[in-house]
């Protein structure tokens, strides 16, 4: 089993809260409060916050405090390019190796996404979206690529959390996932790549529109 240090556990909790926007951009993070919540000293909290800072999720101001960083718009286009390149390659390989059990696993994820879209649960829908893409990386035998992508696309994910509640967006994602799933089941690598590239182009949020609605969340 993976060993998680105290600082690591704090990091993972804060990371999840920041990416899900439970901790929105601009929120002041108090070391003392976090340490009390976890029942630890401030040392592992500082370690976790430093790691988050290195990942661009918090800004640390000496003598002033630590705040959740705003989403840097300039970083999103490059992250999109990286994601298309890596996931395009991954889904091609997955199309060559996908088994009936693999397709059944994707079907189960898509089924859960349908149910979540019906009730408008954007947060859990996003988690299933992550599971769908991670499953494809595992089918391809490239789990390390997904681990890398999680760090690359973190700012996209924060923006998407604001975009997913838009009317019909979750239904569209489900339809796009079905097209990818069908290409994998047919072992059609070219179609799988085309479907993935189309999907990734569509899931990127309209940052300008979001920026106008949430001006304090972006920089």
From TrEMBL:
MF terms in GO: DNA binding; DNA-binding transcription factor activity
PROSITE patterns membership: HTH_GNTR (PS50949)
Family matches, as InterPro entries: GntR_C, TF_FadR/GntR_C, Tscrpt_reg_HTH_GntR, WH-like_DNA-bd_sf, WH_DNA-bd_sf
Transcription regulation listed as a keyword: yes
Keywords: DNA-binding, Transcription, Transcription regulation
Database matches in SUPFAM superfamilies: GntR ligand-binding domain-like, Winged helix' DNA-binding domain
Sequence ranges assigned to domain HTH gntR-type in this UniProt record: 4-71
Superkingdom as given in the UniProt entry: Bacteria
Protein name: DNA-binding GntR family transcriptional regulator
């Amino acid at each position: 089993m993976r060993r998680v240090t105290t600082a690591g556990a704090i990091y993972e909790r804060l990371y999840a809260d920041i990416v899900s926007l439970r901790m929105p951009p601009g929120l002041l993070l108090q070391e003392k409060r976090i340490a009390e919540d976890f029942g630890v000293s401030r040392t592992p909290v500082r370690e976790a916050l430093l790691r988050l800072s290195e990942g661009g999720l918090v800004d640390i101001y000496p003598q002033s405090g630590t705040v959740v960083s705003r989403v840097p718009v300039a970083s999103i286009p490059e992250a999109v390019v990286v994601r298309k390149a890596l996931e395009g390659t991954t889904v091609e390989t997955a199309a060559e190796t996908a088994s009936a059990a693999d397709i059944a696993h994707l079907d189960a994820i898509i089924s859960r996404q349908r149910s979540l879209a019906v009730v408008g649960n954007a947060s859990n829908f996003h988690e299933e979206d992550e599971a769908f893409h991670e499953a494809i990386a595992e089918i391809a035998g490239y789990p390390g690529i997904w681990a890398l992508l999680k760090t690359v696309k973190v700012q996209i994910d924060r923006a998407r959390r604001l975009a997913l509640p838009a009317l019909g967006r979750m239904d569209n994602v489900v339809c796009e996932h079905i097209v990818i799933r069908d290409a994998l089941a047919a072992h059609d690598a070219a179609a799988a790549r085309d479907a993935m590239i189309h999907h990734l182009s569509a899931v990127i949020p309209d940052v300008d529109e979001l920026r106008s609605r949430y001006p304090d969340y972006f920089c």
